[in-house]
User: Fold this.
Amino acid sequence: MYRSELHSILVQALEEAKWTRSTRDEDNFRQVICSHLYKNISPNNTEIPSTRSGSGDIRIFGRKIELKYVNAEKRDKLDTLLADIDNLIDSKVEFCIVAIRFTGDHKDNHLARAVDLPLLTSNCAIMPIADHPPHNYYGPGIFLPACYLHAIHRISITENGKSKKTNSYISVERVHNIERSCFLKVGNNTLHVDVIGSKEDGLLTFLYKRADNIKIDSLQTPQDITVPYKPTPLKVASIERVNISTEPELPGRKVTLIEQNMALFKIT
Assistant:
């Protein structure tokens, strides 16, 4: 669904939703998104299934869109978010939305304020970070279009009204450093990511969709993205800059350059 008209409509709706105040409830946020979708798509063609499991949180002409909405008071585990990405990779849904609500209460940029990330011991971890089966990719890598890795910090978070300590090793970039449009590589699968909003604006939203039948031309040698760690840094992904062209199935059809100097994150 990369570069489809529905892709463009969803980006527009999410841009407008970042300045529509919603509660901290996922159901309410879904209604907010739909209210903006209705400007381009009839409500008769937009469904919010009463039982969403397996049917998508939103359906437009039968096309399934999964939604996750997290914040400091509703911290979802990373694996809960990755279950939607798995469905996208397996072509069971067309789009995945992960929206993160921030408040002015916390002045730092730690992603762990809103997402329950796997913990790392202070040293000598023997497993990769969140090696997520069955596609075996490094889970925190899905946030790299708008986040960066750093040495482990111990921070306090509130969970069920109680304060506790957790490890943080990934934080949100400043608004001017975010990759607004980029690609993720998971094995043989390529996903495109739009990033809407920022922590500074109070809402950061990722829109994931498959990018099939594209040609990727590398512009530079990949660079590893790691968490500083002892005895050796922990790799989460690699990044390279690429050009993206069409790759038609029909021989002789025109090949068109559609994206230049884009970030490609390989998270396997």
